[in-house]
Amino acid sequence: MKKESRNGRLLKALLIGSCCLCLAIKLNGQETGIWQRERINLSGVWQSSLGECRLPGSTDENRLGDGRHSTQTTSQLTRLYPYSGQVTYERDVIIPDSWAGKKVRLLMERTKPSTLWVDGDSIGSQGHIYAPHCYDLPPLTPGTHRIAIRIDNSPTSVPKEIQGSHAWSDATQTNWNGILGDFCLEAREATYIEDAQVYPDVERKQAVLKLAVIGGKKGKARISVGGHAWNSPMSHELSALTREILLQEGRNDINLTIDMGDAPLLWSEFHPALYRLDISLRQGRWKDGCQTDFGMRQFSTEGTQFVLNGKKTFLRGKHDACVFPLTGYAPMDVASWRRVFQIAKQYGVNHYRCHSYTPPAAALRAADIEGIYFQIELPLWGTIDRQNTALNTFLKREGDMVLRQLGNHPSFMMLGLGNELGGDIEVMREWIEDFRRQDNRHLYCFGANNFLGWKGPQDGEDFFVTCRVGGSALYESHVRTSFAFVDAEQGGILNNTRPNAVDNYARAIASCPRPVVGHETCQFQIYPDYQQIAKYKGVLYPYNLEIFRDRLKPNGLYSQADDFSKATGRFAMACYKADIEYAFRTPGFGGFQMLDLQDYPGQGSALVGILDAFMDSKGMADPETFRGFCAPVVPLALIQDFCVRNSQELTIPIALSNYEENDWHTPLSWTLTDETGHWERNGQIPASVAQGDIATIGHITVKLNDLKTPQRLTLRLKSGTYHNYYHLWVYPDEAPESTEGIYITDKADEEMKSRLAVGERVLFLPSHDSIRQQSVGGLFTPDYWNYAMFKTISENAGKEISPGTLSVLVAPQHPLFRHFPTEAHSNWQWWSITRNGRPFILNTTEADYRPLVQVIDNVERNHKLGLVIEACIGPGRLLMCTVNLDAVAGTPEGQQFRTALLRYMKSEQFTPSTDWTWEEWKALLTAVPNSRDITGVKNESDYAHPDKE
User: Fold this and answer.
1) pLDDT on residue 33
2) C-beta of residue 274 within 8 angstroms of C-beta of residue 267
3) pTM greater than 0.85 (yes/no)
4) What does the alpha-carbon distance between residue 782 and residue 5 come to, in Å, rounded to a whole number?
């Protein structure tokens, strides 16, 4: 066989990647009478080496293979019909008489490495995974022909480094085998349009149409182009354009300038106007045509901010890992993706970042319509090494094809080389420079959170996606508020600094000359909602959720599963709000990418979403409330401390973040109310904020001395249709509560025993050292991402392990909380208390025993935990608190918590319903909890040596 030159192979790869562009877009759009290529749809029944099946589809969907699978996997969802290897699909097709003499091409929109035979003759193989597989067939005579296609999803079919990416891993979309999307034979004349790329120029009010035309012979031809805006309430018909051209035999590159008129409709999240070009080609009796959509948009940067069509924009993003549990792969239809984006938009999202994968064209079409800004990535989560030529060739080819296949989509705004990459920065730079030379319609970065942020931004990147800006271990370099313990001291800002709504990331981005986007923010674990198990009726099954649910039973927690889910979800909502507002408070910040709005059912089962894996609400947060702090305009209360005393005069600066398209001049109204609505203060503040800026617009000043009892206040802000809210806790400025009538001790000794024996009330405050083996550490924020995975990473790196808890759980109407108002879950008034507590392990107590302040554990351990417990021991009454009250005494909430404990113990309501003997009590204090081995899945990122090349 004759060897192709390197340039020839590259040209062939580009043609393969772009060969179906025009037709694929055309067939998903509206017909306008242009010439339509003939097709034979290959959908239907096929014979495979594993049995009869239907294509398009996967082996999983067709239940091919032996169906053997583990029912004990907790790290991810389980494929019911897993298969990895080669599968050959065969079928006869009939070529009609009308196709005689025409060029025939076989199209598979999305598949894995493939090999094609026609009538037993090998046509070739293709190894890419993003772009369509397009095979030019030899001349076929009318009649019956046998097609055989081998699809290979085995470990040897792609470089091993690809297999940890979300393009391949079973953790999310599964390593499926099959053929998806458009699947057909297509007939073309000898002269045809191979590719059509549209380069909009907003400033000049024109667009350049770059055509690749394959000439069947040398001679004259005519190209006609018409166009119109098709999805906007404003109509706009483009002037028709016709050109006579001289074609050479073979490839011809033709550039045409499209006049967009005096007032072209611009594309953005606010008005995602799309134009459709109808392109016709005729050379003698040969005719061809296609349609392509595009948007008039210019995406660029200005200093540390993104600019779209001359307006500064802020990326309110979410991470996407191709989580589609019913099929195990990304939808290939526009309607399914529109549903996903419409849900995300309800929560204020305008940006999607695809982690180490590129979605199918249907996702970009839907994003074009819905006004979603996409960052897509090459399929790598690992290391780039100049010597790894097999990997480098694979990745560079994927990037070249992606630019050709998806480049016209206005929603395709950003391209990265992968996730958390390490290795050779110079190779990354060379690739990005080449991509930018090919296509300047997009912005480029070397990858998302490369070197875990430690090396900082690199020359050659247009923007910087990271969790930290450079090599400082201090919080001043961070651009998200929550981390794993292995990656930041005590898990980062939100857990380890006193809560406020003032701080921002200004110091971090001061050292970066380009836009910074916060990487994978909001990784707050939420306890599973086990009712979702019934939804898994497709190729994946949640044995992991069933196992987690059953782990509740030994410690008597099964009946609390719903309470756990609601409490942790609502607390996570408060943490989302805090993290997101940190970004909006930062002048000149680029945006954030949440991980995630929805659950991630892989990588140890990271249930971190307020939506489940199906993008359905868990009932923890309504979209409108969430959108209040995640929107183009966000009213912000710059609250220095959420817990105050009533002797203070409350002064709160009010700011407004404005990423609407114009300056903002709508007054802001505010109300501050107590829980009953009987106490209220309100007012209005004039607002004037430049587009793309955040500015303080005024102050709220309120006296609190007429609030004589502990209160939770709610501050509501509204400007136009935009709104936000905050909670504050006000406590009476009183002398410390008397301990009269209560025996307080830190030792469970004979003195305690004797006092209980005569009916006294005992407050037991054990030292943390004395209960270290019987308790877990204090943690305020929900555990990060997944306990098992980061426990193992911390152990391997020799770093501190997170305590692993998720939230407190209390009954707010219990008498204990009469003087310490609270919801059922953690909130900002619990910060110092939970941080200075050690939740006590109560696994050996009765199944129905519940502590007064319970702490919800992660799904791996499922301990029954308590910060405050009570019981009767003989005639005496005991209350045990494992919070270090001395450590929190100097805070308003700490002093009030102590007051609440003492007043409850003095009251007639202090009548514990549980009776223990002294011996049972002592056994509980000295019990050694049962433990089991908890080992997490492997993570591709190196937390021990994050900055190595």
Assistant:
1) 53
2) yes
3) yes
4) 56
